Amino acid sequence: MRGDSGAVFLGKDMKILVTGTAGFIGSALALRLLERGDQVVGIDNVNDYYDVNLKLARLERLKKYPGYTDIRASLEDREAILGAFASHKPQRVVNLAAQAGVRYSLENPYAYIDANVVGFINILEGCRNHEVEHLVYASSSSVYGANTSMPFSVHQNVDHPLSLYAASKKANELMAHTYSHLYGLPTTGLRFFTVYGPWGRPDMALFLFTHSIFAGEPIEVFNHGHHRRDFTYIDDIVEGIVRTLDRVAEPNPEWRGDQPDPGTSSAPWRIYNIGNSSPVELLRYIEVLEQCIGKSVEKRMLPMQPGDVPATWADVQALTDDVGYKPSTPIEEGVARFVEWYREYYKV
Q: Residue 163: how many CA atoms within 13 Å on its side-chain side?
């Protein structure tokens, strides 16, 4: 079938390697791919960065499908990763496994180099040596760092990261470009903007705030609640991943070395933002959460934390142009769905 841009979208029933399938986004993506008839080879080390039981519960949803293969391995385990490519020969790969979190990168920097840099070279080598048709990988809105021109566009330079996490994601984009250029490996990097929703990460604000409200405890609100974030609902993120996965990255024939466009290349390499394109102030986000739960919460106002950025706002024009998609779930709807899931999962 053809998309709005004229690009050819391939059919289903592919074998797709997805890393990070015990994670928030990885599990949601794997479920979507399995439901449409693809085979999914899932890799995750199920580490204890946050609640392992939540990760195992996500995996249980996937194991109900005969097309799912579960592999427990770390990205930095070269032998295990390259062995998975050799054994399963995936047609396409989505790399979502990573050491996540901005603040944790100040405490444990080596974890980010191991998983996000060493691990990513293992993924690239696996793709190169096993004729993978397309590699899609998670980047992050954090790569915009010190940029203040809004909305953030993939056509802006992103050379001033404010955390090691952001630097590791920028490194992934550069490493992918090298492989696209040298070996013709089509790669697409996706800069996610503050993802939230059911089955989310317990270290993220929505989860922390919800837990505190139900427990009757105060919450810590950084930057005095004036952070503005482009909160993006999980289903919208997954839709964006699937659409870009199905559209293999191509060179930009108009790309010029004397006026280089940071979002495209003469190689089969692309970068897209996936965000809701409607920033919301943190205090409004908390207000919506209080309304959904039916309780107010005491707020402890604190200054901005090292590595944080005051605002994010995604320009998704490139995504819309190429795959005909734009995230649109409002926070009122998305937060309500999260609270409904939280009540059911934690029996509160």
A: 25
3-state secondary structure of 119: helix
In contact, 186 and 133? CB cutoff 8 Å: yes
Please give the structure tokens belonging to residue 54: 């939540």
Are 245 and 136 in contact by the 8 Å Cβ rule? The answer is: yes
Smallest CA-to-CA distance from 250 within 138, 134, 169 is with: 134
Mean pLDDT by 10 residues, the chain (348 residues): 38 87 98 98 96 98 97 98 98 95 86 96 98 98 95 97 94 98 98 97 95 96 94 98 98 97 98 97 97 96 88 97 97 98 97
Is residue 211 classed as helix, strand or coil in its secondary structure? helix
**DSSP, residue by residue, 160-199:** --SSHHHHHHHHHHHHHHHHHHHH---EEEEEE--EESTT
Element (DSSP H or E) covering residue 63? helix 52-63
Beta carbons of 5 and 270 less than 8 angstroms apart: no
Could you tell me how many helices (H) and strands (E) the chain has, helices first? Answer: 12, 13
- Taking the C-alpha atoms of residue 200 and residue 168, their distance in angstroms, rounded to an integer, is 22
Residue type at 322?
Answer: D
Strand partners of residue 220: 300
The reply to whether the predicted model has a pTM over 0.90 is yes
248 touches 323 (CB < 8 A): no
Q: Which residues form the catalytic set?
A: 165
